[in-house]
Amino acid sequence: MDYQTALAEEIHACAARLLAEDVGTGDITAQLIPENQWATAKVITREPAVLCGAAWVDEIFRLLDSRVTLRWQAADGDALDVDQYFLELEGPARSLLTGERAALNMLQTLSATATATRRYVDLIEGTGVRLLDTRKTLPGMRLAQKYAVTCGGGHNHRIGLWDAFLIKENHIAACGGIQAAVAQARKVASDLPVEVEVETFEELDQALAAGADIVMLDNFAIEDLHVAVEINGGRATLEASGNVDDSTLRAIADTGVDCISSGALTKDVKSIDLSMRITQTFNV
């Protein structure tokens, strides 16, 4: 299954799960509103953000009530200003209120990942270094958050355990060394990239000698990253990881590594403050 097909299926399944957990057997508070009352509503952001999650919101309201119309004033990946309204909805007032929380939950979470990614991408602008995510995603939201990273200008590392090798410390120990681990990876799936995580210059030499496609430099000091780039000499793609934050990111990028990975993009997210307000009601 290709990525786009998998993402489309995940959007549908996620929307169904969100509605099931929130609505349950029925929205009893929405029943206070007359069935024939319709409304328009606007969604705004209370802080600067990069928008992400429109497809999830579309699917939530499609499943909930096809009579709801959504008019987007911004697209995924667009930068939003404080108090900017970016979505207008119209339809049965009951349905707008029933779907509100499920929709905002996805928007505020995915926009948080996209916003954090954009901030990091801006910090390394001009270096040519690619910013990568990791598998440290919120449970059940792997594809959604990885999509959000791309909306922020970042790039996806492997999606899961099946699409690339990442040989870490415990794999090396269990396999009997870096050379043995890389050799076995070539036998298991010769067409997939092989990445080795290293913590010392000795391990870097071993990974390069074994023919690793990518070497992850784990928690290397800035000066050691410079040395690692010289040792590598362009033989493998170098990925820096660990101790990545606003204060270190640019310095890491300036060492000459090819990419930087950060779990903070997906695991340390702080939801964007969004709000939906009814702007008009009328009977039909």
Automatic annotation (TrEMBL):
Keywords: Glycosyltransferase, Pyridine nucleotide biosynthesis, Transferase
The protein's name in its UniProt record: nicotinate-nucleotide diphosphorylase (carboxylating)
InterPro entries, per database record: Aldolase_TIM, NadC, NadC/ModD, Nicotinate_pribotase-like_C, Quinolinate_PRibosylTase_N_sf, Quinolinate_PRibosylTrfase_C, Quinolinate_PRibosylTrfase_N
Purpose of the protein: Involved in the catabolism of quinolinic acid (QA).
PANTHER family per UniProt: NICOTINATE-NUCLEOTIDE PYROPHOSPHORYLASE [CARBOXYLATING]
Source organism of this protein record: Vreelandella lutescens
The Quinolinate phosphoribosyl transferase N-terminal domain, residue ranges: 27-111
Glycosyltransferase listed as a keyword: yes
NCBIfam families: nadC (TIGR00078)
Entry keyword annotation includes Nucleotide-binding: no
Taxonomic lineage: Bacteria, Pseudomonadati, Pseudomonadota, Gammaproteobacteria, Oceanospirillales
Listed EC numbers: 2.4.2.19
Domain (Quinolinate phosphoribosyl transferase C-terminal) ranges: 114-277
Similarity annotation: Belongs to the NadC/ModD family.
Domain of life according to the entry: Bacteria
Pathway: Cofactor biosynthesis; NAD(+) biosynthesis; nicotinate D-ribonucleotide from quinolinate: step 1/1
